[in-house]
Amino acid sequence: MSDRDKHIQLLFAAELQFRLASAVRLATTLEVQPLDLPMEWAYGKHRVTYEEVALRPDQADYAADFLHRSATFLMAVAMKDAILAVVHDPRTSSDASTRAAYQIARLIRNAFAHAPLSPKWSIDPDCRDKVFAVPDVIALDTTGIHGAAFDWRHYDGPLALFRLCGFVRTHVLKDLPPPRKSAPIPGNRVYQIGNLILEEVDEIPPEAVTVLIERLPDGGIPLGDGYVLYPKSKE
Description:
Layout: H1 3-29, E1 40-43, E2 46-49, H2 50-53, H3 57-86, H4 96-113, E3 131-134, E4 138-141, H5 158-172, E5 189-193, E6 196-200, E7 221-224, E8 227-229
Antiparallel strand pairs: 1-2, 3-4, 5-6, 7-8
Helix pairs in contact: 1-3, 1-5, 3-4, 3-5
């Protein structure tokens, strides 16, 4: 297997982990994620019981957020290494998108490297006050963020990084993936905008609580933080 092919596999593995972490995060929030662990687990010379490793639902929901963030970090690491494997000096590449993809992946990797559970931006002096962008995929404006806490708003969130991972795999490493096989039909019809989760139901659940909310002039229902709910028929 060539070095290029190996990194294509690693990039795809990072994308799969991100997708799985996204599913786990959603399931724990909706409280449908099983939290089963072995009653007794032996590995090498160590042994633990269920009581030692069991998770409460609130602990699982908390940990799922960090799991999702870790998957984001690993995509950045995989991208940085993959670009370096096929581009001699990505900082000076003749392709602007390759240069930007490398710098974004590298800077995100650096943000996590020294504090993975509480990442902060560590921007090199020659990369400060600049915008690195891959058109229609991702943009990172480094102005004023050196030393600041890592924030999805700086690079437009985890989906932008997921798209960047696919871009690196197909555009930089020239991967030609086969047609996708059909995925299983989801058990719940869920829509997500940012961290706002909406679940489609056939009828109002009996435990639902009535909330009095004044509609907006156009009929929308404000959900807070700028989110507005409209009927399905409204554009």
